[in-house]
Amino acid sequence: MLRQKAQDYHLAFTHLQNHQNISAYNLFVDLANEYKKTDSIKSAIFYILAGESRLRHGKDNTNESLEAGKLFLNFAKKEDDYKVKSAYLCASKCFLKAGNYNEAKKAFERAKKLTPPNTDVVRPVVIVDDSESIVIRLKNYLKKLGYDNTVSFSTGKDAIKESKKMFNASQSPIFLLDMGLPDVDGDVVASKILEEKIDSQIILITADEKTTKRSNKTISTGVTAFIQKPFTINDLKDALETAESEYSAL
Question: Is the N or the C terminus of the chain less surrounded, counting Cβ atoms within 10 Å?
Answer without folding.
Answer: N
